[in-house]
Amino acid sequence: MKHVLLILLLLSLAMPALADQQKPGKGVKVQPARATWNTGYFQEALVREGLKELGYNVKKPKELTNPLFYQALALGDLDYWTNGWFPVHDGQMPDNFYEKGEKVGYVVKAGGLQGYLVSKKEVEKFNIQSLADFKRPEVKKAFDADGDGKADLTACPAGWGCEGTIAHHLKAYGLEDDITPIKAAYSASMADALARYQSGKPAFFYTWAPNWTIFKFKPGKDVVWMNVPEIVPTEAQKPQVERLTVSGVVGAVSNPVKLGFVVADIQVVANKKFLAENPAAKEFFKQFTLPLADINEQNTMMQDGEKSTKDIDRHVKAWIAKNQEKWDGWLAAARKAAQ
Length: 339
Description:
By secondary structure, the chain is of the alpha/beta class. 42% of the residues lie in helices and 18% in strands. The protein has helices at 2-22, 41-53, 66-75, 120-126, 137-142, 161-172, 186-198, 213-216, 272-277, 279-287, 292-303, 309-322, 324-337, and strands spanning 29-30, 33-34, 57-58, 62-63, 80-86, 101-112, 114-119, 151-154, 179-182, 204-208, 223-225, 245-246, 257-258, 264-271. Strand 8 (151-154), helix 6 (161-172) and strand 9 form a beta-alpha-beta unit. The longest helix is centred in the first third of the chain and has 21 residues, at 2-22.
């Protein structure tokens, strides 16, 4: 009997230690942020769920523009976000940012694609190899929906960063008299482009990944990533000129393909002090990575109406259930890092 009591006593003493190992973030409050574009909500919600499972008290994310996030993180007002796009965001950081902040892991390495896509049927019919082919009368006519004599490009709304890059391309390649950029609300414009495509009409649009657009328009099947005629960088692009051409892009018209937009690594960015004090969180950030197709699929569900907080939470739970072994591995690595 004494032996049984001794064993029970030892187990009772060990259980709190085991519980602490399972929840290394217990008692730690965490303030994340998320970007203003909803195609980044999913990865933010997944990481938040992971930290909660590690015992952290994670607050509701603050939704901020890029410059405001990096400024707030450097000041110590925030702990992390999952929406870093690099090198695209480099110019939006305060001076000496990396004294206070740090990039951790890769949510999607080279996953932040941007560029022009053209319906595959027309690419093959007219042998379209780059934007320069839109100077040809028969190509312009095929993509001219409003009868103004120019091809219609579903582009970026006024004020978006990509609006300036598209304007630069049209001027640099002498296409201002050949292509009309449509600058209406993006989601509505893309929904219209999709409806036109599904009715048998051509498609020509700018997009980025991850995004619902390349889940609905499958690159390589429905559409093709298109070359710009040559690499003519904007001033902001010059430091990353080598990232304007990319190899291995699924559904590209050529390999490599000259996209004309900087390809970004999507990464977690966190406060250095937070990382130093929370090795479990840092390790989870390092482990966390998502297939681009999974983000596109979830973004499509949001575009189709499943965009409430409850919907996104349900998407998170479904993804974890589908990828339980991988998820448990990330958590195990995070717990081990805290020991």
